[in-house]
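Entry 14. Ran structure prediction on the chain below.
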Amino acid sequence: MEKIQEKKLKQAIGNLKNVRILVLGDLILDEYLIGEVNRISPEAPVPVVWVRKEEITLGGAGNVVKNLHTLGTQISVMGRSGKDEKGKQLLSLLKQESIAEKDIFLLQSSQVPTILKTRILAGHQQVCRVDREENHPLTTEEEESILKHFRSILPDLHGVILSDYDKGLFTPNLIAQVLQDCKEHNTLVTVDPQVSHFFRYHNASILTPNHHEAGKAIGYTLDDDKSIEKACFDIAEKIDPSALMITRGEKGMSVYKKSDRSITHIPTVAREVFDVTGAGDTVITTYTAFHAAGLDEVEAALVSNAAAGVVVGKLGAATASIDEIMDKLSELGVIE
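Output, structure tokens:
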């Protein structure tokens, strides 16, 4: 079993506060209308939800931001919002994650509204979801605006997370330019890819798809170690990442390293799974933060695997604290 030296792990934890990570991605607002159902509507055969509580929180790339805040890193954020009241609310929620306004770049678009996903729940049962969004790719002018700001802050960054929810932000040119700039500055860049963009992410430091996404992209089912290993080499041949992490649900995760063409299989750590919502965001966030703070690829993957094991034991898009991650690592016996 792979191990992490306790001294090196504690040193990385101490470094986290000095690490600055940029989250560039599709920012979403998640709204929850929570209530009770006592009757069926007389207008149609649907339940009437009597709303007793309303919540709104950061979703999409915003969940990556929340995970970074929990880990205690410095954070920069770039994304797109509408010129609307929800855009102002998005900015307010980002500031609540201890991010200075100067470290937030929201491209305000008149073409698209701020993305809002409303979930209506009766108790813990979701009755329906209402999405308010328009999927328009960036204009050339918007691309130039984002790239100009990105290049101005790149020298101060220790890592960049690209959080792609396929909402129009990641145009082919933006992806190519950001990855090229990161390569030239030797800056860690990690990608949570969409299948539709999968093979555009050339030269990324790491991609973190789940086995369904990777299988769909490469064109065959990934259901055992052998098929996972084949997929790692096939994907690497196409886009040449420095590393690749395929998360595999109850089978854990597998990590490919370009430097020695090795593949490490890491078993799952979750004993009870209540909700997998946001687990992928926790994985890429924890990996990026700890790799930037000094751990190697496999060590950072071990920590991210432990963090995922924490959050799937909670309801909703949760985060994992340093103490919770350390407890999980100790429980697994991977600290030496």
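Residues 64 and 281 are 5 Å apart (CA to CA). Will compare against last week's run tomorrow.
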